[in-house]
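Hi R.,

As promised on Friday, here is the backbone we talked about, encoded as structure tokens. Could you run it through your design pipeline when you get a chance and send me back a sequence?
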């Protein structure tokens, strides 16, 4: 075994695919249903609002990615521009949101698979999906990227199919109540949907494995988010047009449940298969991301040193990969999709708030720093729109990380 030497195997196309692959998945196929229950037809406004917050934060990540290209993303940004404590807290929360997020995605995968093969046990199948993603990451980065590229292409085609069907059966009257929008519902929906946008910065986590990272990573962040936002908005409009704001549809298998009302042959099956591809690619990149942040933290003595070991054949941190997959698999056995998603949203918003703050410490222009401050405020605004249970659990995670840092590390 050698240490701390990662191979540069990721091209611009691969980087954009990782960004899109990490973003379009459980959010559009599963979490959109949860958000629609909260916001009704105004879920479209929630999608736009969450996307706006994501773009503000993405602008901060662009500035940060230009300033440093080390593995670890938000963790390394906080270490460089803030302090060791903020770096540790960011890394801890990032690991939390993505381990929990991995479980969320795996549960979404399992729910859609059970709609095709009834009777499957949801939580155990979700855990097995985590193990499968771990195995692929364990083989090597090149294999993971190749599989992800194929999965991204398939799920985009499936979502375009959903939009086309939505246009064919579009009912304008489903938007009649949009004027009676509830601000609370819109904000709550946006806070949940932000989880769906969370993967836009995933590529920054593997910067050391990206060719020409200083130019490639910022470009991949913005292009990946733009593609994902356009798809999200199109799908949300199509879903409401098909009657998706009716709470009778199942949120866990939202898109296939909505499209089944059209009676188009095999439409629900196509969406379920697309959801499997989508959630599989997100799970794949989630395990990838968690392992790299754990690697970066271990390299800086903020995590056990064994996670900093890199296999000299494949050039991946295999111990960290195993930890990432096993942790998500165990959490997936818990099986509470709503709680898992909302807790993940809290941690993600906290990480992005810290990253926005770190961006204000760079040598960026005054205009860029203003955007970062607005991004910071917007992250806190969405965070306060989460459920009380999410805030309590998220706050406990922050206190736990702080106590560990000051008691165990000092």
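Update: got your reply. Pasting your designed sequence below so it's all in one thread:
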């Amino acid at each position: 075994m050698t240490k701390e030497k990662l191979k540069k195997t990721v091209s611009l196309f691969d980087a954009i695919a990782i960004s899109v692959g990490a973003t379009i998945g459980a959010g559009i196929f599963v979490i959109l249903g949860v958000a629609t229950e909260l916001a009704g037809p105004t879920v479209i406004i929630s999608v736009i609002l969450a996307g706006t917050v994501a773009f503000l934060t993405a602008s901060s990540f662009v500035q940060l990615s230009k300033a440093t290209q080390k593995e670890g993303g938000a963790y390394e940004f906080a270490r460089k521009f803030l302090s060791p404590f903020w770096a540790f807290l960011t890394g801890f929360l990032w690991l939390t949101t993505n381990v929990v997020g991995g479980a969320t995605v795996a549960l979404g995968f399992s729910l859609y698979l059970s709609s095709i093969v009834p009777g499957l046990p949801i939580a155990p199948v979700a855990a097995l999906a985590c193990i499968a993603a771990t195995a692929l990451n364990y083989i090597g980065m090149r294999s993971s990227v190749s599989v992800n590229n194929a999965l991204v292409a398939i799920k985009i085609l499936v979502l375009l199919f959903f939009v086309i069907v939505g246009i064919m059966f579009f009912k304008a009257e489903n938007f009649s109540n949009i004027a009676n929008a509830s601000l609370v519902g819109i904000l709550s929906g946006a806070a949940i949907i932000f989880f769906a946008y969370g993967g836009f910065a995933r590529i920054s986590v593997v910067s050391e494995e990206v060719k020409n990272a200083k130019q490639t990573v910022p470009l991949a962040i913005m292009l990946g988010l733009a593609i994902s936002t356009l798809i999200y908005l199109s799908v949300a409009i199509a879903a409401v047009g098909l009657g998706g704001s009716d709470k009778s549809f199942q949120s866990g298998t939202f898109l296939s449940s909505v499209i089944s009302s059209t009676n188009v042959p095999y439409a629900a099956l196509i969406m379920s298969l697309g959801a499997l591809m989508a959630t599989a690619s997100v799970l794949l990149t989630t395990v990838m991301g968690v392992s790299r942040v754990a690697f970066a933290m271990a390299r800086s003595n903020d995590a056990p040193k064994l996670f900093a070991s890199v296999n000299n054949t494949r050039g991946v941190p295999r111990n960290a990969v195993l930890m990432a997959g096993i942790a998500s698999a165990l959490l997936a056995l818990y099986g509470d999709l709503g709680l898992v998603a909302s807790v993940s949203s809290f941690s993600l918003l906290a990480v992005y708030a810290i990253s926005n703050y770190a961006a204000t410490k760079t040598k960026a222009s005054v205009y860029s720093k203003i955007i970062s401050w607005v991004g910071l405020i917007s992250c806190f605004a969405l965070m306060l729109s989460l459920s009380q249970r999410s805030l309590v659990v998220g706050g406990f995670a922050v206190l736990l990380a702080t106590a560990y840092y000051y008691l165990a590390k000092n």
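One thing I noticed while checking it: The chain has one domain: 2-403.

Thanks again,
M.
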